Amino acid sequence: MLRVAVPNKGSLSEAASAMLSEAGYRQRRDSRELVMVDPDNDIEFFFLRPRDIAVYVGQGTLDVGITGRDLLLDAKVEAEELLPLGFAPSTFRFAGPVGDFTGVEQLEGKRLATSYDGLLRDYLQERGVNAKVVRLDGAVESSVRLGVADAIADVVETGNTLKAAGMEIFGDPILKSEAVLIRRSGSGGAANGTAKEIEILIRRLQGVLVARQYVLMDYDIRKDLVEDAAALTPGLESPTVSPLRDSEWVAVRSMVPKKETNRIMDELYDLGARAILVSSIHACRI
């Protein structure tokens, strides 16, 4: 069986399970379940702390896992990113008291509090900045006020927590993170006979990503306007064009980016298309 690590809590957990369900895999119904077998797909899921997943995968205990890119890099294990999954976006940034810092070079000799010490040490070393890294497991924003650090490096979403603590973001982002599928570096899945299962998992997850990003658009249009319409809805390969009872008209079907749906519908209507319909894509293989 393919052994897959899934986050058991936090911002990654619910979205990861939802994506696996959309990909056709059975998921747990009780949050207290730690292991769940999906015999139909010959796969076993292990629900673990997001921070531990890279460790288990890097050691080869589990075949693949879903975790954050920031957690993968911070763990400093022999694991690699296979596929970005498009959810749980975050940005890892520096922050300090308002007006104290403007760039990373000013952190020379300073104390930096973070929950991602491995990731931060690598970043500072690459830029030749010698600073003391103070590892904390939580409440990093309070470290400056409590005198533990001069500045912090932490995951920032809205920045409201930082403002409440009298701090501001400075410098370039350290890392842009999101949920990713990972495996042991260089394994390829072949060593334990799971290469095919990993390939199927990746293909299914890619199908979910495409299904979330695209919709199917159908419309009728006169034959002489097909080329102009196809320029608006080129699809992935080419739109499907089918004859109608009225020989002067054809029916067109194409995949279009979901976020551009209404703009494309308006432009098609202005061009002369009619009966413009949009349908959701529940699953696909590209």
Describe the SSE topology.
Blueprint (H helix, E strand, L loop, with lengths): L1 E6 L3 H12 L12 E4 L4 E6 L1 H9 L5 E5 H7 L3 E6 L5 E8 L13 E4 L2 H10 L5 E4 L15 E6 L3 H5 L2 E11 L1 E6 L10 H19 E9 L3 H7 L7 E4 L5 E9 L3 H11 L2 E7 L6
Parallel strand pairs: 1-3, 1-4, 7-8, 7-9
Antiparallel strand pairs: 2-3, 4-11, 5-11, 6-9, 6-10, 12-14, 12-15, 13-14
Oligomeric grouping of the chains: single chain
User: How much β-strand is present in the residues?
Assistant: 25-35%
Straight-line distance between termini: 25 Å
- Strand line-up of the largest beta sheet: 2-3-1-4-11-5
How do the helices and strands follow one another from N- to C-terminus?
Answer: EHEEHEHEEEHEEHEEHEHEEHE
Helical coverage, percent range: 25-40%
CATH class type of the largest domain: Alpha Beta
Return residue spans where pLDDT drops below 50 for at least 5 consecutive residues: none
CATH architecture of the largest domain: 3-Layer(aba) Sandwich
CATH domain fold name of the largest domain: D-Maltodextrin-Binding Protein, domain 2
CATH superfamily of the largest domain: Periplasmic binding protein-like II
